[in-house]
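User: Here's a chain of 430 residues. Predict its fold as tokens.
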Amino acid sequence: MGINKIAVIGLGYVGLPVAMAFAEKYRVIGFDLSNQRVNELRKGQDHTREADEIQLQLLYRSFHHNTQAAGLNFTNDPYELVTCNIYIIAVPTPVTKQNEPDLRLLEEASRSVGITLKENDLVIYESTVYPGCTEEIGVPILEKFSGLRFNKDFFCGYSPERINPGDKTRTITQIQKITSGSTPEAAKRVDELYASIITAGTYLAPSIKVAEAAKVIENTQRDINIAFVNELSKIFNLLSIDTHEVLKAAGTKWNFLPFQPGLVGGHCIGIDPYYLAHKAISVGYHPEIILSARKVNDSMGSYVADQVVKLMAKKQVFKPGAEVLVMGITFKENFSDVRNSKVVDIIHSLSEYHLKITIYDPWASPSAVKETYGLSNLTGEDFATKFAAIIIAVNHDCFQEMELSSLLVDNGIFYDVKGRLKNIRSDGKL
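Assistant: Prediction complete.
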């Protein structure tokens, strides 16, 4: 089949690390529809802060310095992928406002690959999907736009992304990878490809559907467990018991799972259960536990807002127009992505009480916050007022070093959502 030349479709938080890992050993072309993203990466820059920019520049130079050497190039022209024989699709798979799978980017990526697909080429999907999606949605598009026949002229694999954005220790090569293929030969080819870069090893699943299902239940399991402790936090709050102390005590038993209450956003835990639920419903089963967990976790933003308002009223600092500082709007700590952040639910709920909200997050891009949520109240660190309440919604490390008490009015409250900030007293937490 010749030397592997790999195309990675989608250069976001998953695709770029995948492309860079393979580019250490193979010639790789990274494809993204965004001309701005492509130009940024060609300059050796990454606004997500996930890539080592020096390494990014070295890989780009290597690709152009020697036509036989490993390295990484970038393009938004799908016809430049025609020289590749392996295609890895790593585009986002979000949900709609109705919490139904939104596969438009995956379908577009499949079309882009289909127009350049050749005999014996291999297409590997990394995007999180429901069981059966690769063969039911992706393959027909590849066949239509290539004119080739599945499992005769071209082959497919599924190797779900296992990247923990913001984690500089457990990087892509340090996490065991599930692999699968549409035929035994294709599965072996996919497994050997990933095994060549994943130092933690690979696990070859018996089918694409098993690999798809394994991925989607990883995060569904976490969602259910977090929903359980979120519900516990509501119960114990009514009983005036510290949830974290209860969990610490229960954790002395060897088989107690150490989950913590919190906001469940992002592109995995808050999304994947809806993909599994969608597929379950399509075959006639209503998944009660999965959807109940989603309901609990999706309610936590408004719950936090209600608790903050009650505390403000108790300390007599609640009034229409009162100033509230929300610290953090990204969906997780020490990370720049604001998409599917549940902090926004807190902000919207507080706004219904006619409070004046200021957002502070040095990790977040003001333009991204404006574009994604229509919010323009992201501020710098020079605060011009004192606040009736400060909510630490995301525990960025940089918040640990800030002196916050001077920013509060008399009797103002702190609400530390996860209860992890060491340098403040906490009037409330989950």
